[in-house]
Amino acid sequence: MAKRWADETPNMKKLPEKVKRAEVDKIEGGLADHLKSSDFPKKKLKAGQKVEREHSKDPAIAKEIAKDHLAEDSDYYEKLKKMEKSAFSKMAATLKKKMTRKYC
Fold first, then answer.
1. pTM exceeding 0.70
2. Which partner from 20, 37, 39, 63 sits 20 to 30 angstroms from 89, CA to CA?
3. Around Cβ 30, how many Cβ atoms within 10 Å?
4. Residue 57 covered by a domain
């Protein structure tokens, strides 16, 4: 069985800075890596976190994903909602058309 870093280094001071930072920055390389939560509108960040819970049950990871998307486009979640609504409408129309042909 492979040993984990934590098993080999019980003293956190021995861990490299990158590993220590991983507690704060759970997903490395995002656009919002150096931005604080307070840099984003609370309502948009909260809505984004709710959406991103589909990717992770960890609230910190969901928040980090939301911050990255909002850093890219402050209207990201509004656009996502419109796109999903449009896709759902098209899917429903297609299904209705197929069902009408099959049973009428």
1. no
2. 63
3. 17
4. yes
